[in-house]
């Protein structure tokens, strides 16, 4: 299958490439670069790094992921999903720690692709991805309230966690800057209204231009990027982070989280893109590209990157159909970095906040969240809400860990409820003359039917199988058992020992492939006797009659 091949999509599409497709990719690449410019800067600031780091990421990671990726149209760069994670790492471990964590994540992603683990991402429940995505949206929104309102915090105020940010906002709400609020509101309204006027030019770019003009021409007292950050309009330089075993251990957890999130986001973006262009991505090659792209981003001063769904969709809508469009988008951003980056110092901080408010709204999926709360089983709603709350109150690492554990436990509970061990009921022909078609079972034979997967959560049901003093043969019908585990196997062994002690012979009917293989490896088949394993219940009853 195409998605199983470790071959970059570029090498496939380049064979029939022509001038017409190049012109479409060129136009799309330029438009996507215009869209990516304000977003890359805004997401970098939300991540606690300088504005140029966002462009470094979009340039280096964007180019590498398009060049090596397994999708025809994927556009990669900094995304909102990483903002809170990156901000936390930078606050606690600095840029060196972030670089090392990103490289560690890149290595994990490459290994995931090489060992063809792309399909395993589907085992992360939809409720967890929806929960932490909505949680991240809330943390981004809360993180931008300060700049949107122009609040001033006393020196030494700690605002790393979302709860700390809310406390600081509440304590300092009296410092609101109405000039900043006006700029923020106008920029927010522009982004809401502008798409109804023109869909080609992004509303975020218009908001940036209007925000700059308002502050400069009206001489408004509003913080700009240049007031808070040093702007560097130069190409990124290669730099290796200081490496030590101790530091690696400290950032390993963060690196693993970045890798899992990058894998989920990029493959989700690929799936969305496939549905839009009727194509098929190569998930394992995409993971390799994501890994190499993140390593490259870290080595050139960038932050973690992954596939960006909104930018990928914009690429498709503007005619991009090959990885060339993504590479052109990165080259255009290089020109912006060198020529226009000094002008980024003029962008007002409320404008950046307004852009991130829109990002948070677009990623929160509140309609999906509400729909799940109304229609999903209670266990899924519990996982959804738990992941959402933990993402906001603690962080994404805790949310994913606890969310996955809860989802697995609740899933096993649900499967356990579906598994049954039932004994066949006997009837008297005189009492039930209409019981035609029912099997005639001798009195010394007892039949139990097992249905559903039998694992450690259901093992006690096997232990509950009983028989009478006059029972000489116990028939176990297993046509409805797709799989068993070691704990269930142990319960079967204990059942055999009880039967042997009471001179009862075990006979099995219709044992499926996986349970039969497990029983053979365990030596249980030879212990019971192969002649006592029958393909059909009638054969098993005939064997019981013989005995």
SSE class? mainly alpha
Q: How much is the average pLDDT?
A: 90
Largest sheet: 5 strands, mixed
Order of strands across the widest beta sheet? Answer: 3-4-5-6-7
Order of helices and strands: HHHEHHHHHHHHEHHHHHHEEHEHEHHEH
- The unreliable regions are 429-437
E-strand count: 7
* CA(first)-CA(last) distance: 52 Å
Query: What share of the residues lie within helices?
Result: 55-70%
Could you tell me the strand content as a percent range? 5-15%
Name the shape in a single word.
Answer: elongated
Round the Cα radius of gyration to an integer and report it: 31 Å
Separate helix tally = 22
Characterization of this structure:
It is a single chain. The chain has 547 residues and is mostly helical. The protein is built from 22 helices and seven strands. The protein has helices at 9-13, 19-46, 51-68, 80-114, 126-149, 162-171, 178-197, 203-217, 225-228, 245-277, 283-299, 309-317, 323-339, 349-364, 366-375, 378-393, 396-418, 459-463, 486-501, 513-522, 524-528, 537-546; strands at 76-77, 306-307, 420-423, 445-451, 473-480, 505-509, 533-534. The strands form two sheets. The protein has a five-stranded mixed β-sheet, with helices on both faces. A two-stranded antiparallel ribbon has the order 1-2. The longest helix is centred in the N-terminal third of the chain and has 35 residues, at 80-114.
